[in-house]
Specification:
alpha+beta
Length: about 170
């Protein structure tokens, strides 16, 4: 497993407008693109080991603003996370724009961890409140709740409005 890369401190905190845009994207986007690194295995994905793998996921936020996911153990992204927990989520608000590149995008990078016990129960309540339809499969034996511990965030709020934010910027 590769070593952890410590979060990089941004320049003396993010500008208030950038911080608010990031928080708005996290709070209002119910889905994101999850990117994991393909794990080496004996199946068809082995030829792509180490490559980025994107997939669509539903997201909720815990009380600390950290993304929560409900993932099946059968999914490739979950197998990838079991081998290397580094992951990224892309939240975006570009629909309906003549030029989607003018819309805000937020890349949230960190390390994903499977939750158990009380942490999983707390995640379940928050997640199902945000995504009631997930109650249909949340209790299947192959599904687990995961949380992304945020290390760094990259915001593109439109042309020329680009900011790196820390996890602390989102909690401040």
């Amino acid at each position: 497993m590769p070593p952890d890369i410590p979060p990089q401190a941004g320049p003396a905190g993010a500008p208030a407008e950038a911080r608010q845009t990031a928080l708005d994207l996290l709070a209002t986007r119910p889905q994101a693109t999850l990117t994991t690194l393909v794990a080496g295995s004996a199946d068809d994905a082995a030829a792509m080991a180490g490559w980025p793998y994107p997939s669509l996921v539903l997201v909720a936020l815990d009380g600390g603003g950290r993304p929560l996911l409900l993932l099946s153990e059968l999914a490739l992204h979950t197998r990838n996370l079991r081998q290397d927990g580094r992951a990224a989520l892309l939240f975006e608000d570009t629909a309906g724009r003549e030029n989607p590149l003018t819309g805000p995008r937020l890349s949230v990078m960190g390390r994903a961890e499977a939750l158990a016990g009380e942490a999983a129960e707390a995640a379940r309540a928050v997640y199902l409140d945000r995504h009631p339809s997930a109650a249909l499969y949340a209790d299947f034996p192959d599904f687990r709740f995961w949380r992304l511990e945020i290390a760094q965030v990259h915001l593109v709020a439109g042309f020329g409005r680009i900011h790196w934010l820390s996890a602390a910027d989102l909690m401040a």
